Amino acid sequence: MNSSKHEGHGLLPRPLRLEPRWGRLELGRGLRIELPPDAPPPVVELVRRFQPRFDRLLGAAAEEAATLKLAPTEAAGNHPALGDDETYRLRITASGAELDAPSVWGAAHGFERCLQLLDRDAGGAFLAALLLEDGPRLPWRGVLLDLARHFLDLPTLLRTLDGLAAAGINVLHLHLNDDQGFRFESRRCPRLHERSGSRGYLRVEDVAELVAAATARGIRVVPELDVPGHAGAILHAHPELAAGPAPATLPRAFGPSRYALDPSLDATWGLLEALLDDLVELFPDAYVHLGGDEVHPEVYAFEDARRRAWMSAEGLTDAAAVQAWFTRGVVAMLAERGRRAVGWDEVLHPAMPAAMTVQAWRGAATLEAALAAGHDALYSAGWYLDLGYPARLHYRFDPAAPVAELVAAEAALATEPLLADVGDGILALQAAAADTAKALPAVARRGRLLGGEACLWSELVTQELLDVRLYGRLAAVAERLWSDPVAADEASFECRLPGWLTHVERVTDCRPLTGDPALLWRLGVEPQERLAVETLLEALEPVRWYKRLLGVDGLASRREGRPPQRPYDADTLLHRPVDLLPPDSPAMWQLRSALFALAADPEGLPARVTLRDFAGRWRMLPLQLGALQQRSQPFLALADRIEQLAELADLLDELVDAVSAFESPGMALRQRFGELARIAAAAVAETELAALRPIGDWLESRT
Amino acid sequence: MNSSKHEGHGLLPRPLRLEPRWGRLELGRGLRIELPPDAPPPVVELVRRFQPRFDRLLGAAAEEAATLKLAPTEAAGNHPALGDDETYRLRITASGAELDAPSVWGAAHGFERCLQLLDRDAGGAFLAALLLEDGPRLPWRGVLLDLARHFLDLPTLLRTLDGLAAAGINVLHLHLNDDQGFRFESRRCPRLHERSGSRGYLRVEDVAELVAAATARGIRVVPELDVPGHAGAILHAHPELAAGPAPATLPRAFGPSRYALDPSLDATWGLLEALLDDLVELFPDAYVHLGGDEVHPEVYAFEDARRRAWMSAEGLTDAAAVQAWFTRGVVAMLAERGRRAVGWDEVLHPAMPAAMTVQAWRGAATLEAALAAGHDALYSAGWYLDLGYPARLHYRFDPAAPVAELVAAEAALATEPLLADVGDGILALQAAAADTAKALPAVARRGRLLGGEACLWSELVTQELLDVRLYGRLAAVAERLWSDPVAADEASFECRLPGWLTHVERVTDCRPLTGDPALLWRLGVEPQERLAVETLLEALEPVRWYKRLLGVDGLASRREGRPPQRPYDADTLLHRPVDLLPPDSPAMWQLRSALFALAADPEGLPARVTLRDFAGRWRMLPLQLGALQQRSQPFLALADRIEQLAELADLLDELVDAVSAFESPGMALRQRFGELARIAAAAVAETELAALRPIGDWLESRT
Q1: How far apart are CA A473 and CA A394, in angstroms?
Q2: CA torsion angle for B271, B273, B277, B279 (degrees, to 10)?
Q3: At which of A100, A134, A168 does a domain end?
Q4: Residue B221 within any structural domain of the chain
Q5: Residue A63 has pLDDT above 90, yes or no
Q6: Are A333 and A474 part of one and the same domain?
Q7: Distance from CA of B412 to the nearest CA of A (A)
Q8: Inter-chain touch B151–A590, beta carbons under 8 Å
Q9: What is the rounded distance in angstroms from the CA atom of residue B175 to the CA atom of residue B291?
């Protein structure tokens, strides 16, 4: 009974029910999965995929290996579908392990869990004895990846499937077009990918391979065709379909645009028919996302005679009615093809059919309004991973909580110290959601909360940066979607997160902690500088919210109502240190826990060693990075941060001296820290000095 | 002209001819490969494979990206073949790059080279202007991977193809069977892979995927069916075919065995017919390797009446004649199937047809004898990567050097200080080769030296350990096979090697420097201990030659003519720190060059920082690894090494103090170093203290 795994400490998302038992299954000779007799092909394939994953950690299973016996399992449908049974039961005793699952999807979750449960100590590798009964809380547990702003190619998506499976995510929502690009091969309208798919698109065979690999993991792939707005790439290929302006070249700028399809043209509907035919051929899932977000209000304020006449004929009185009429048309076309529609929460309108599923992205208000109006709904508002929040903030949103709680949690973001300088922007978006919601009548039959999706918009994400940006925060969303909210605990989650990220790095080809080695090359880092650069980067975090995307000056302009000079567009090279930073630095969690551990036990050796090691490495940075700063402007721009860390090294050492001598840190030290914190509060090359926070919090806790 | 790439410093293997030119091609917007019009499908596929590799380093190519223009290129044959044109010409100017290659294989080499040439400085990414005319020296540039002792699965082999391509290797020789396993799916004799393929075999579809991927990279896949010896796995499935004993269970022991096929039985020939039919269906290459090595001399010393009669009837007088008769039969069967045979140098025999290619593994003597007897030949004797030599030793062997030079180079190994304690064993093997060679008459028409192969026998290599074990030394062999020997320079090679390994880690999925993260997990290392463990491991190297495989005691037994108690068999878990060590520690090259750089410029900052950093990290190890040693016996076993490193830290700091003060290290310091070196010379848990050597060499150089 010496394993923390008995208590489920290493597990993320937290399982439904775990009963520790006495004993352990020894795995010194490996673990061999035993197939049930006459297993259907998908089950055979599942085992063929997982056996090497166990072997990689344990060594190849010997004849006398321990066994993991899979009970007879149905192959389920050809593809995973919303609401499929995903439960499983895993029983581990000293003599073997048994996995029961009604469906192959549940069996896949069971094997993933078994990988997480692997443990080892001085006696070798083992599985702690336990009984685990598990299954997800909500049936739609998704992540949106945006292929339009920066393309993500097939190998990237394939490795990502393994990362998603490790988190219990079962929907991969692909945002396939936007102003900046059109990302799938359209057999019927090849002009689209040919003219607007520059820098990459998924070929027909790529989609087939992706869908097959996702299916093998129980993951649905839901495509999004974003219409009628965000249509820059479509209009670059077909300018004749524009309701407002059409782009002269493929747009590179980010931010809301006026590119939208003209719903009054037959040709628009011809294109949509063709594209939906393409999509339903490519993607087997029952759902297709039709976008519907951020149509510029002035674009559909038609003034010309032809379109005024068309509006009259259709009985449309304003821009909102025009968009609603358009969306109803697309929903109907999908229904003809046997598919159900999902749309962003701007589709909410009294004229919208209840059969449409609504994805609430601006606030809890639209989630509640959608459910009240009879729509099935997905929650995303608190889960925008592109905003650079730390994971614990995303973890605070329970999509199934009473609406008042969810609204309060969203409002609390604006007063979060970390986001103090962007709180007004956060509130403005929530207010817009509340506005949309107000116009909507409630109906008798309330819709179902299907689940939700983490959204990683990719203005500042490339395929090389994906892993570092995605997993740290996805884990928070994944646990919210999978686990019992009664057991939700922010501290426990943060405690399990570093281990889970290490697990992902160990069992998949994703690198959420170490990142893609190509990036350090781009930054000009030579191999012998790698450790020092890691020491620097792990002490930094990026600035938050749209301060990153708009820039410090750009955000100020936007607040003052002036159009911001955006520092980024789709061509900007993401070659600066800030681009490599995860919004949460795992090393800073380690610093924090070492500080508090030393305070609890001033004679404790491991915490002291950890803190001395941080201080020692920070102190060396000005020397170690001197040559790099001479070669590389982006590192020269971090000169203040490097000096601040060296100064912090002295403070940290003095602090450790004091605590180790059973003394309180003195006033002089506090004053010096306060002064440093004040100076270092300003953004430097879009970075924050993350190392300040654990030390500041610790000093705070000792007053 | 500010790039060292102009001079080819970053290139490995060294190109044939490189002319630096003035200027550089700026790559700030990426690099786009331009296809020639009407390019054949293999060329289109080649570009489709390389474009994302450039994009990963440079960012996705923009519309206005620099161009790399590929001239019209032939698709060559369906598969690469011995002697195909592999040359290319790469011209880089400030306005663009052009690649000319007569064949798609040459174009692939050109793209690989272009990846190596990518550089960046404060001005961004670029290619230095140059003219490069390149092509390999020898047509057969191979690596043997042994799938029998430990299986290497398809994903491992696929990623390895990229690593081989980066080295200019064009033959992947697969050792598919041995005593311990049979590793391909035989359609005609399924009993073989079913009974003897435990822990993995390549399925028919795996081989097809591997061959297709290899073909796309211009790499030939040459299968080896090792007969008549090393037949334990075959005889486990078909004991009725044994000439001597048949194994009761699938053999796990390593080392020479007595398992050999009985050539006097028709059933043996029936099995061989079937297996060769399988192999020629699976592998399109013109060559098949038939093994032929290490048949135990007593097994074919037939005493029974039936086989004596058979020998008489065939006119066979001794065991050597029996084996030669067998080999001739297999060669003839291959010829009937349109294939040419390769065999290990034990196949040399006056009765052997000259059409057989001989792979010299025991010494230069058999290489010369084979060539003199009219055989085409491959050199491998100096290139056994499983022996744990540092790369520079393998680099000393030029297979096309006059035989006396090659023999002298081999003999010099025995007096190499690093191998002082195993020199007698090295000489014994060379003597055996000379014996074989003596019996052979020369003929008028000398054979051709086709090239050679690095051999990585896998007794102590699993797929998780492969990358760390393979690439550091493969580079030495690759340069010998590719480059002009006139330019060969050990110091230059060692100087380029670390950069090349970093390059491989950056442009492929292979991890020759960082290794598989699963392995640290197996060793019980927690994430926060990773850096300290790396600091420890990079200061160690494994013991050399068969001292590793046989163990220190086992080697002593073997020397005394007693059968050694082998510490390893095919079931031994490779879970100890020594298993993770590359035979050459790249960090120790860095230590060495910093020491000599400081001596050259005692005020130089970078070298001093590097040396202080080593000392600082070594000094922390006893504290940082204390907890791990308590949990993990294998790390506890390294306690002496950890203490020795902490002591070495003090010596190194004092040495830096002295040099920085323009003083010579004093006698007291030298004495303390000498004492430490004496104590640390003993193997600890099969490791050497590699950190001693650069410091010792440096002290030596200052006397």
Answers
A1: 7
A2: 60
A3: A134
A4: yes
A5: no
A6: yes
A7: 33
A8: no
A9: 9
On chain B, the residues whose CB falls within 8 A of the CB of A499 are 527
Q: Are residues B84 and B184 in the same domain?
A: no
What's A365's domain CATH number? 3.20.20.80
Of A462, A623, A632, the CB nearest to B609: A623
> Most confidently modeled of A228-232, A542-546, B664-668?
A228-232
Q: What type of residue sits at position A423?
A: G
CA distance B278 to B271: 11
- Tell me the pTM: 0.93
Q: Omega into B13 within 30° of 0, i.e. cis? A: yes
Determine the average pLDDT of the residues in A502-524.
Answer: 92
Residues of B in contact with A505 (CB under 8 A): 517
- Number of A/B CB contacts below 8 angstroms equals 124
Report the distance separating Cα A439 and Cα A461, nearest Å: 36
Q: Can you tell me the ipTM of this complex?
A: 0.90
Q: How far is Cα A690 from Cα A583, in angstroms, rounded to an integer?
A: 10
Which of A110, A134, A158 corresponds to the end of one domain?
Answer: A134
Q: Note whether A531 contacts B531, CB cutoff 8 Å.
A: yes
β strands within A294-396, DSSP E: 340-344, 357-360, 377-379
**Quick one: closest CA in B to A461, which residue?**
B59
A135 is written with which tokens? Answer: 């299954």
Please name the residue of chain A whose CA is at the shortest distance from the CA of residue B622.
Answer: A609
| Residues B361 and B475 grouped into a single domain | yes
Decide if B505 is inside a domain. Answer: no
Whether B568 maps to a domain, the answer reads yes
Nearest CA in chain B to A612: B620
Instruction: Give the minimum alpha-carbon distance from A426 to chain B in angstroms, rounded to a whole number.
Output: 32
B323 and B376, same domain (yes or no): yes
Tell me the nearest-neighbour CA distance from A89 into chain B, angstroms.
Answer: 26
Give residue A262's identity as a one-letter amino acid code.
D
Cβ neighbours of B571 in A, within 8 Å: 29, 62
Q: What is the pLDDT of residues B241-300, one digit of tens each?
A: 999 999 999 999 998 899 999 999 999 999 999 999 999 999 999 999 999 999 998 999
pLDDT number for residue B2: 41
Query: Domain for residue A506, yes or no?
Result: no
Q: How many domains is chain A partitioned into structurally? A: 3
Q: Which domain holds residue A401?
A: 140-496
Q: For B576-599, what is each residue's pLDDT tens digit? A: 999 999 999 989 999 999 999 999
Structure-block tokens of residue B529: 């201990």
Nearest Cα of chain B lies from the Cα of A537 at a distance, in angstroms, of 15
